[in-house]
Fold:
Amino acid sequence: HLYSARGEGLQFRLGRIEHPIIRGRNSFMSEDDARRTGETIRQLFFDAKMRLPKRVVVHKRTPFTRDEQRGLVQGLEGVANVELIEVTREESLRYLASNLINGKFEIDKFPIPRGAVIVQNPSTALLWVHGSAPSVKNPNFKYYQGKRRIPTPLRIRRYLGQSDIVQVATEILGLSK
Structure:
């Protein structure tokens, strides 16, 4: 699915992967398939806007292989910033919020806030899309829809691109403009 920077859906196109590479239970694109995918993205955007985009962000739930990276960059030639982002759930981590009370940290009754980002390194961050949020009626109170479960974060890993990892995470959450 192809979106503009404002979140407008431009196109939806299914494409055939001619030479998939199967590893475990996941399929990956060959370099040629990735190049064709990049060319299709570039052409769809050009047909819709009559110009190439300045930035293309490709998200997927599996790692980007070197062939996929090379092919997408070749297919998106002319695009100034190509971002390749892996988005997965990090099931092994569960965080609770803490409060500073009388100079000591105490565990809060609520999970970490929705939208919290922890940067692990310049290309990887943890993002909580579920978590506590301030109450609409009273900002002094918190609300958490998950009741008893402690939410798991998404792990955002950038394979290629120029954007700050926190910017990428907030874009995924839908908090940026």
